[in-house]
Amino acid sequence: MLLPLIAHEKKYFEDEGLQAEVFNLGDGSRAMDTFLAGDCTFGLMADPPVVKQSFKRNDFSIVGTVSSSDASVRILARKKSGIEKPADLKGKKIGVKKGLNSNVYADLFLKKYGLSAKDVSYQFMDAKDMPNDKANWEIERSLEESSKS
């Protein structure tokens, strides 16, 4: 979430008469944990950590949304996998980070196309183990884009 960091750097908080210390914790789970521990009074994170904690506690409020989009998350498939449309995911393995964005958005994506987590095999991974070298991926296109044709 770059917006608060940019606002701090450009002194927008000060311009509005606010005194703010802004720091980046790297991911939403750490931001949520820091917020819930009382180490900050305001937190900015994506939906999954908020939803996860909302089942456990009710001592926080959502006061706003920075941005919103239903097209910002993509599911990518290697060309050689034979996956060309969402229905092709049935019976396939999907790598996700358990309980966070990739897990939640994968569930939502499957639901949107009439599938469920029971139709696939989730491989829960740590972020450090997930593929990150796009040059080694044989990515043809995102399933979102291919499903529109």
What's the N-to-C terminus distance? 32 Å
Count of DSSP-assigned helices: 6
Largest sheet, strands/sense/barrel: 2 strands, antiparallel
* Mean model confidence by pLDDT: 78
Q: What coarse outline follows from CA principal-axis ratios?
A: elongated
Structure class: alpha+beta
What is the spatial order of strands in the main beta sheet?
Answer: 1-4
Q: Report the order of strands and helices.
A: HHHHEEHEEH
Explain what the structure shows.
The chain is α+β, with helices and mostly antiparallel strands and 149 residues long. The protein is built from 6 helices and 4 strands; from the N terminus they run H-H-H-H-E-E-H-E-E-H. It has a two-stranded antiparallel ribbon. A two-stranded parallel sheet has the order 2-3. The chain is elongated, with a radius of gyration of 18 Å.
Write the layout of secondary structure elements.
Elements: H1 2-9, H2 12-15, H3 28-36, H4 47-54, E1 76-78, E2 93-96, H5 101-112, E3 121-124, E4 139-142, H6 143-147
Parallel strand pairs: 2-3
Antiparallel strand pairs: 1-4
In short:
The protein is 31% helix and 10% strand.
Question: What keyword list fits this structure?
Answer:
149 residues; alpha+beta; two-stranded antiparallel ribbon; 6 helices; 31% helix; disordered C terminus
